[in-house]
Design a protein that fits this description.
This protein is α/β, with parallel strands linked by helices and about 350 residues long. Helix content is about 35%, strand content about 25%. The protein is built from 14 helices and 13 strands. The protein has helices at about 5-15, 45-55, 60-70, 120-125, 145-155, 190-200, 215-225, 240-250, 255-265, 295-300, 310-315, 325-335, 340-345, 350-355; strands at about 20-25, 30, 35-40, 70-80, 85-95, 100-105, 130-135, 160-165, 180-185, 205-210, 230-235, 265-275, 285-290. The strands form two sheets. Strands 9-8-10-11-7-12-13 form a seven-stranded mixed β-sheet, with helices on both faces. Helix 9 runs antiparallel to helix 10, helix 12 packs antiparallel against helix 13 and helix 12 packs across helix 14 (about 350-355). The radius of gyration is 21 Å and the shape is globular. About 40% of the residues are buried.
């Protein structure tokens, strides 16, 4: 049957796709290694196909909310035949007055920092007792997966209380040495900012915020970091300097001097990342790492974020690296072609300079 969601979700897992898209008038599509692949054997989906698919996965309350608000975020655990199991984050919406949906695969097993080939400095970040650490990058480039690997490292090595505030809950953490409480926007708390405010009364050591999306949430996150908590969050920004500017620009002009001082004090670091198709299939995660040392803090405090790239280039000894330095490593290892790396470089000329040097 066209639009059989159970079958399509199983195909996502089997083919190691990252996303599934269903909408009226075109076949379902799987995103594999960053590119969409249509499931052409079932042909285009009709309005009834899509409606039946969504009715099979949404509860009555979710369907009612979807029809009232025209869109809905949710997550669920999928269990299929052949032992297939995974979690999915779903977003259902309307386009041209027709139902449509996108589903993101969230593996059941949380991969470690080593498994993901992420920098070892992230293990050092997981040992911090206070401060704010940001994971940034475009949508669909693995920010949640990187954060999950860091939180899992904390869970595995420390005896602390972790609270996550997510929309929706993605990876499921099982309390190991840490006690982990996961709160979902809408189901467990009304908003990121409200969940953060309440969390400070729940004796947390580590806080994970799904997304720093507005003034209220960023203010609460900075306050939490100032009061002795380790706070993790995500931003949809490209590089470290842009991430710092984004946080500051959210505030009214008369508050920006103060937030610069606060951010300079609490920032632990920033990991900016991209998932890039590699030679022979699969993808690699290329990362830019900023560690907030005294020189970086001074740049933030004085509004000289244009100098941060230079500080990252010269901060290799403390675990820093630019996106170009990371890409150059993948070119040298044969994971990426030079042509592909240049496409994803923030500064292609700098990448060529690193490779020649």
């Amino acid at each position: 049957m066209p639009g059989d969601l159970n079958k399509l979700l199983g195909e996502v897992i089997k083919k190691k796709a990252s996303d599934l898209h269903i909408s009226v008038g075109v076949p379902a599509a799987l995103r594999i290694d960053g590119e969409l692949n249509y499931v052409t054997e079932d042909g285009p989906l009709s309005a009834d196909d899509v409606k039946n698919a969504l009715s099979s996965i949404l509860t009555a309350a979710q369907m009612e909310r979807y029809l009232a608000e025209n869109e809905l975020d949710f997550s669920f655990t999928y269990k299929g035949g052949e032992g297939l199991e995974a979690r999915f984050r779903g977003n259902v919406f309307f386009e041209s007055r027709n139902m449509a949906a996108a589903f993101r695969l969230i593996p059941i097993n949380i991969r470690s920092i080593d498994d993901l080939r992420l920098p070892d400095v992230l293990k050092e970040i997981s040992k911090k007792r206070r401060g704010l650490f940001l994971v940034t990058g475009p949508t669909g480039h693995g920010k949640s997966t990187t954060l999950a690997s860091i939180i899992n490292e904390v869970n595995r090595t420390r005896y602390d209380h972790i609270i996550t505030i997510e929309d929706p809950v993605e990876y499921i953490y099982k309390s190991d040495k840490c006690m982990v409480h996961q709160r979902e926007i809408g189901a467990d708390t009304s908003s990121f900012a409200e969940g953060l405010r309440r969390a400070l009364r729940q004796d947390p050591d580590v806080l994970l915020i799904g997304e720093l999306r507005d003034l209220e949430t960023i203010t609460a996150a900075v306050t939490a970091a100032e009061t002795g908590h380790l706070v993790f969050g995500t931003l949809h920004t490209q590089d470290a300097a842009q991430s710092i500017d984004r946080v500051i620009d959210v505030f009214p002009p008369h508050q920006q001097t103060q937030i610069r001082v606060q951010l300079a004090t609490v920032l632990v670091g920033i990991c900016s990342q991209q998932l890039i198709p590699k030679e022979g299939g699969g993808r690699v995660c290329s990362t830019e790492i900023l560690i907030a040392n005294p020189a970086v803090r001074n740049c933030i405090r004085e509004g000289k974020t244009n100098q941060i790239k230079t500080l990252i280039q010269t901060g290799v000894s403390v675990g820093m690296r630019t996106m170009e330095q990371s890409l150059a490593g993948f070119v040298k290892s044969g994971d990426l072609s030079l042509e592909t790396a240049l496409t994803f470089a923030y500064d292609p000329k700098d990448l060529q300079r690193v490779l020649q040097g």
